[in-house]
Each structure stands twice: as C-alpha cells, then as structure tokens.
Write a structure and sequence with these properties.
The complex is a heterotrimer of chains A (416), B (275) and C (367).
Chain A lengths: L1 H9 L1 H23 L17 E4 L1 H6 L4 E2 L5 H9 L2 H14 L11 H11 L11 H18 L4 E6 L5 E7 L3 E2 L8 E4 L10 H37 L1 H16 L2 H12 L6 H11 L2 H15 L2 H8 L4 H37 L12 H10 L12 H25 L6
Antiparallel strand pairs in A: 1-6, 2-5, 3-4
Chain B lengths: L3 E12 L6 E12 L3 E5 L6 H9 L6 E6 L2 E2 L5 H10 E4 L3 H4 L6 H14 L4 H14 L4 H4 L9 H15 L3 E5 L7 H18 L2 E6 L2 H7 L2 E6 L2 E7 H6 L4 H9 L21
Parallel strand pairs in B: 3-8, 3-9, 6-7, 7-8
Antiparallel strand pairs in B: 1-2, 1-4, 4-5, 9-10
Helix pairs in contact in B: 4-5, 4-7, 5-7, 7-8
Chain C lengths: L3 E13 L5 E13 L3 E5 L6 H8 L7 E10 L2 E2 L5 H7 L5 E4 L13 H11 L6 H14 L16 H12 L6 E5 L7 H16 L5 E5 L3 H7 L2 E6 L2 E7 H6 L4 H7 L52 E2 H4 L9 H8 L2 E2 L5 H21 L4
Parallel strand pairs in C: 3-8, 3-9, 6-7, 7-8
Antiparallel strand pairs in C: 1-2, 1-4, 4-5, 9-10, 10-12, 11-12
The chains are: A mainly alpha (416), B alpha/beta (275), C alpha/beta (367).
Chain lengths: 416, 275, 367
Amino acid sequence: MKNTLRQITQSPKFMIGFCLILVLILTTLIYPLFSPGSPLEMIGLGTFFRPGTYVSVYDSVTTDKRYTINLTDAAEKRVASKLASEDKEVMKTWLLEFGIAEEEIDLEDTEALLDLWFNTYDESIRFDNMTTAVRKHVQRTDAKLDGLLEHQDIIVADSAADGSLVEGSLIKGNEYINVAEIANVRVLPLGTDNFGRDMLKEMISALGVSLMIGLIAGAIATFIGLALGLLSGYLGGVVDDIIMFVTNLFTVIPSFVLLILISFSIGQSDRGATTVAIVIGLTSWVWTTRSVRAQVTSLRNRDHVNLSKLSGHSLIRILVTDILPYIASYVIMAFILQICSGILAEAQLSMLGLGPKTTSVPTLGLMMFWAMAYTAHLNGAWWAYFPLVILIACISFSLNLMNTGLDQVFNPQLRD
Amino acid sequence: MSKSVLSGKGVTKVFGLGDKKTVAVDHVNFKFSKGELVSIVGESGSGKTTLVKMILGLLSPTEGDIYFMGKKRDIRTRKQKREYWKGIQAIFQDPFSSYNIFHKIDSVLMDCINMRGGSHLPRDEKIKMITEACGFVNLKYAELTNKYPFELSGGQMQRLMIARIFLLKPQILLADEPTSMIDACSRATILDMLLQCRNEVGMTIIFVTHDIGLAYYISDSVYIMEHGKFVEHGTADQVILSPTADYTQRLINDVPKIHAPWDFAKVASTVSAQA
Amino acid sequence: MGKAILEVRDLTTKYITRFKEDVYAVDHVSFTVDEGRTLGIAGESGCGKSTLALSLMGYYFSPLYYTGGQILVDGRDITNMSPDEVRKNVLGTEVAYIPQAAMNALNPTAKIIRFIEDVIHAHDLKMSKKDIYDLARERFEILNLPSDVLQKHAVELSGGMKQRTVIAISTILSPKVLIADEPSSALDVSSQKLVIKMMYDLMRMGYIKSMIFITHELPLLYNVTDNIMVMYAGQIVESGTAKQMVFDPVHPYSKGLMNSIIVPEEGTRDVKLTAIPGTPPNLKNPPQGCRFAERCKYAQHLCHTSFVTMRRFGEVDPGLLGGEDEGDAVAERNRAYRCIVPIHELKAAYAEEDAARRRDKEAVSYE
C-alpha cells in the first residue's frame, strides 16, 4: 500500500495531472477571496467589452492632482490610436507613387510612417496616373492627420445652479494623472461577456460549479456502477441476469438522449446544478457496471474468496474485504474518468440549452452556451469563448493524465 | 469398513443450457470413511475440481445428494453453511491466490479461532493458539506477525494453510492439488505435515491430484476420474498395481516411470487430429 | 560417440533488474552435447534453467545480457555475431528454441501454414507459396501430423496437437539443436508421450541433430534424455548419464532432488520421501562458498567459504572407475560434479540414509 502510494507520487504523468487539477481547484477557492461579489453581477452596460484596464472617465477628469509630462511621442501615439488602417493604405498608395520602395513603408510602425509622410508629402506634386478622386482623398487624409496632430486644450464645463454652463477646469495635452490616484479603475483581464459580466470572475466561479457537477455525477455513477457490478458479478445467476438486462437496456439507449429527455422533463425552473449533476450520474453508470462485473466475475472463483466463504464470512464482508481491494485501483481510475465525462456531459447539455437554470450559477457549459447564443465568435469576441475551451480541455487533459499515470502504476506491464 | 463420513449418490453437475450443455460431473457415487486418506485422480478437464466445489458446498449439484455424517446435507441457509464448514475444510492448489494480499497473515489464523467459537477469548490466548499452530508446521509466529502473504515463499504459504486446518480441526479436509505449485524438493514437507495433521486431528483427507504416482504414494484408496465419471476405485495397491479399467491402464502406462523406461518404438504413431 | 554439436564454455549471462541490480542467472556454465544425444536440464523453479535455454540461442534482449563465455554450434562461435546475424543465420537454422507454453502463442487468427511461411520469409529464403506448402506437407506427414492441419487455425486444434504443430514449425528449417523448455507440462500424459515420441522421430530421421530438454519432472527427464545436468542457483552442480543421475547421484542436491521422485510403481510406497529444507539463495548476492552449503546436510566448515569448481569424476577418485566395459568407463569419466566433500563419505552417508528412509516409512502408521 505504502509502496503503491510512493510509486504513484513518483509517476510524473500522475503528478503533472494532479498538480494541474489542484491549481484549478485552489483557484476556485482562493480567487473569490480577492475578488468578492457575485460572479453574475452585470457590471457592464453592453456586450463583450475587450479585455483591459478600465478607468473611470469622470474620475480621471475630476482628479485634482495633475502632472505635466512632456512626451515627444504623445501626439503620434494619439494619432496611432485613431488612425484607421484605411488611411494608412491611402498614404501607402501615394508614397509608392512618389517612388518610395515598398519595403521602406511599414504600416505597423505608425511613428515611422508619419515621419516618412510629413517629410515627403507635397500637395503640389501630381501624378499622371492618379485620378482626381484619389488625389482628393489623399489631400483629405493629410488634412485629417494635421487635425489629429494639432491638439487644443479641453475645457471642462460645469453646470451652474441655473442650468447654464460655466467654464470649469482646463485640461492640457501634456497633463497626466496617476492611475493609482483614480478612484475607480477596473481591471477586466478577460473583458466582459454578453451580459456585461466580468468574464474571469464568472469563469472561475463556473469552473468550481462544473468541477462540483463532475464530482457529484462521477460519485453517483461510480457508486451505482460499483454496487451493481459487484452484486451482479459476485452473485451471478438470476441477480446477474436481471442486473445485466437493465444494464443492457441502458446501453442500447444512448445515455445522452436519455439525459436530454430527463433534463427536458424536469423543466428549466427546477434544474439546479445539483439536479443536473444527479441526472448525469444516473445516466452514466452503465460502463462502470459492465467492467466492474467483468473483473468481479474473474475474482469470484479465486481461491482466497472460496477460503473466505469457507471461513463463514458474510456476503458484505467478502465483497468489501476480499473483492473490493482487488478492484480498488480500477474503481479509482473509473471514478476519475467519470468526473471528466460528467463535466463534459454538463457542457454538452448546456450547449443545447438544457443545463442548469441560467439565473443562479454559471457553469462552463452555460457560459459556452451564452457565448454561442450571442454570436461571440462572429463578433470577434474571442475572450468570451476561447478561455472556456482551454479550461475544459485543461480539466480533461489533467484528469486523463492522472488516469494514465495511475494505469502505469497499477499495470506495470504497460510501462515503457 | 468404518462408518462413512461423507458419501454421494448420483452427484451430477451440468453447466450451460441446451446445445452448449456440458456435463462436468456425471452421476458419481462415492463413500469416504472416517480417518481414511482417499485420492481422487484425474487429468485436467476430468471434472475433479467441480466435484471438489460441490463437496465443499461452493457449487450446488444439479442432481444427486451428498450425505455428511450419515445425514443428507442441507446447506440452504447461511447458518447451516457455517455449521457445515466447521466440519469440512479445504486447501487449494495455488498458495499465491489462496490469500487475500491486502490482509496480514494474522487475520487468516485469527478468523479460524473466531470460527471455532473462540472470539470471546482474550488476545493472549488467541496468540498462544496461533503460535502453537505455526509451531506445528515449523513456522515461527513471531517472524510472521505483521507480514503480508506475498512476503512468504510458496511452501511457507502452503504450510500456513495447514496451520489453518490444524486450528479449525475439521472432520474432512479436501486437499485440491496442494503440492502441484510447489517444488519437488519441498513437496515431502507439505505431505508429511498433512499426514501429521491428520493423525493429530483425526480427520479424513480427500486428496485431489493429477499425479497418479503421488496418489499411490500417499493414499489408502484411490478413485480414478475420467470425463466426470469414476472409472475405477479401490485400495491404492489394487488400483495402481493391477488396474482394470482401460483408462487407468493407459494412464499408468503413459506416466513416465524410472524402473520401466519408455520404449518409443511401441508408442502408437498414428493419431487422429483430436488427440 | 558422435561429434560435438553444441559446445558451451563458461557461459555467463545476467539479468539487470529495474533497480539496476545484476542477477547472474547463468553462472559459468560449460557442457557439450554430442550428435544424436539428448541433454536434460533439471532443477527447482528459479534455478536458472529457463534462462540457460534462452541464453543458448545467442540472441539477447533486455533485461537479459551476455557477459562472457562461448557457445559453439557445430564449431562456430555464435556469441560474437551481431543480433541480426544471429536472427538470420542461427535461429531456426542452427538452434531452435521452444519456450514454455509456446502453443498458446500461436496467433488464433492465422492459419498454421502462415507461420511456416513467416519462418521461411524471416530467413530470406526464396520459395514460392506452393514450394512452402509442399515442404510443410511433406514434413507434417513424415511426423504423423495430418496435413489438413496446415489449413486450420490454432483454436481448432487440441493441446497435444498444437504442441506438436509448434515443434514441427520450429524445426521446419532442420536446426542442429532443438531446445525445448517444458514442452509437455501443460498436456495430459498421453499427449505428452506423443509429443516426446515426435521429437525423437525428428532426431531419428536426422531433421535435428540433438536436443536439449528442460523440465522439472524428473521421471520424464529420465525417460527422455541420455544425459542429465542438475542446476542450482545458476550453476551446474552435477552432470552425468540419466541412469547415473537418477540411481547414483553424487552431489547432495542431486541426491535430494532424486529422493523426491514419485512414480506409480511397486516399491514407491515403501520409501519415505525426503525434502530439502530451506530456500535457494538470492542470486543478487550469492553466497561466497558452495551455493548449496546453506541447505546441505553434509556441509563442512570449508563449504561455506571456499569456491567450488566443477570436477571430473576420475580426477578425484580413480578407484571408482572400474566399469566392466569400455562404454561404462567413458560414461563414468564424463561425469562431473561440484562438491568438496569426498565421494566415499557421501556415498556411505547416502546408503545409511536410504536404509533409514525405508524404516521410517514403516514407522509411520496410518491408523
């Protein structure tokens, strides 16, 4: 026993998988401590905010402490953030006509492009093969650039008691404030989803719920499978026939179809995460039963079981002490796989809109469903679905890695 | 002939149904008397293991009755089974699979004492009994405590099985090929201990084996089994030295011997594909 | 006496365990097998007899490694060949090896003829399908195997039939030496006899030149082989003719082994079986002196410390070489054993012991 434990801890595959899953579990436990509040709180009005740091405009303007910093590239940066790629193309067309080599024009490096532009552009030059429309366009772009570069100070007007506007503070181009001094800054590392919820917070909460669903579903499936498999394999005869009949019945009906039907009949309002987990567990014990039964059938005729019978031990005692330890390693592996498939089943179910009810808790499957329903993939909002995919893959990967590691420890002939 | 402790009438075991029906044991009759050492000799597939399981009550016969101590055996309830198993015990072929590898050796022997109604005894008393039993089979209990079965050699494990029988003191012991997995040079120890144990406890031993030489060496009477039937039985000298059944003659003829070596020229060379 | 077909000199091979420990399972083994002769190897399980058989092929793979010695097949040393060369030019053509339970290794989805085609192709022999079939059929018929077996699958054959088929397949290229590891232990006695008869037929008809037979069943070995070697803890402790070894062993271990023989013959019941106490030594760190000393009744002080080498019978006690005819004397001279206790002392002790065994048996009462 001790030896087996040592071997398990020395199996790199198991340990990598185990550490990964441990990190995930710890994250779900610890993150809420740092970021309290409901994960379902809709903080954003609007859908799919990009990942980033959000600074309150109001507070930035009203922050008293201002620093003057002269940055030479400030103007260019401002231009860069507002210069559309269409404009850059127009600039490129003109520059090419002028005779600048294509490799010298770098559309990515806005600063260099602007330098090049202001050094070479001359309104008076006319190219023969350039239509008037294009020439006008170039002129307009140039004018726009000038406008962008030129900056005027911004006057913030306060509203007076009678409703009229009174000139308030003046904000200069080179005035800066420290982000730390702004009252309201919100970091949204993964942006928001379609409802304007903090993606990261929601996802970590969903991870916890999904793991719990997997655990409950896996435990139920393994327990039912183990109990039926043990009884069926050990007792044989009529009991075996009945149990195997039921098992075969469940085998031929695809368990996912069953899952859909049961979930549907429960109804949207009654489907909590736990209910869904129980339903998943109740429909996925079939394969565990079959394989446990197969193992028990071969153990049943071993001499130590016969000897135990001859010593007058009871059925339960023989099952628990003489058979269960021999298949324990197998059951543990089946359990891990059941957890994994439970999580995936929840995701599948939720994608069909049959997951837990949407108002109480998020799950990984539900978040995927929302992302899909609000066409995150068409809006280019990768942050709304891609981290979820990675996370589900990660759970599945680490659980399967643990299983492979255990398999190698328990079945030494598989090593190398 | 003394009183019979175990006898069977028309004992039959059929496996499977319909076309796949196989008759493993076919209407066998037997009668074992008290204190006797009987061998049941048969090659693999002759149904001897099935018969052993039926006698032990691990399988129920399809047909026929088994009489234990003169009375018809009735082991339908668990209580009756427990009572029956106090009178009949077994040693199995493979010592390595006879033990639960997750339990320490102590628990196997402790079970025996509990089974003989000694569960109320103080621990010291129990350990004394176990030490005595281990001493009987030449093992030191002090060296065995807290050990797992797989830390012992095959011979030691089988000796421990005899210690178990010594503690249980049944009327009948079924020994199912107890020496076939043991090296020839430690075989004599096991056999000696079995015989000693018999003298000590006064039990009947039913020795099941495929080795006709071994059966001849150890037993008082021999049953020869072929395809689920007893083809011959009698005292050891009778059956081995002057066999009457064709099968027994062939068996004894084909077993390698050392005083009458094989003559290969006489071995029939034309054999059907089934042989 | 025929010429030597297989000569093994000081062969040593080892296993490397998972924990990088060396286990010398075959330790300085030397012997010769002559043409037309059969050698038997006897010993307890774990004594290295199966490893010796495996080592004799000259084809080593993890965890078995060659460490020293020579194997001469028909005068050619196969230990300095590359593995590929061994596989192409030695296995199947010079040395054929039938491992334990080989008959269960037949692929159940292939017909028997496929295995023979495989053997032929593995040796790069250019033969058409028809030629192979003709060769196989001819060989099968000579060996009294029905030729329709060739078109059957392994599952359709009985145990004895499968084993004989395996032997016929392994010897299809007429190897010089056939090494059979427990070829009959899973069979019933009648099939066992047939299998062995077939192996003899192979040798009588000249398809193989000699055989090495490994089994733990001593009566069988006595019936099958000309010479017997007894192995203990990776070493050969004694060798001689089958008759000498069974009825007149010298080494205390051989004596103990022979005392455990039981056969269904008159007189068996009159002699008490004896056992050798204790267990074989751990080969990871074998004892310094005689490896059997720990379990030996006759061990003297020196046995535990001094290294024992194999010695010839005649070298030690020429007085014992007084056979009536030339053949016996040669056989006697070829005996060798590994023990430092003088022979006359051992023999005297054995005589006493045998008498005591008879008395003992009488003393044991059954009623």
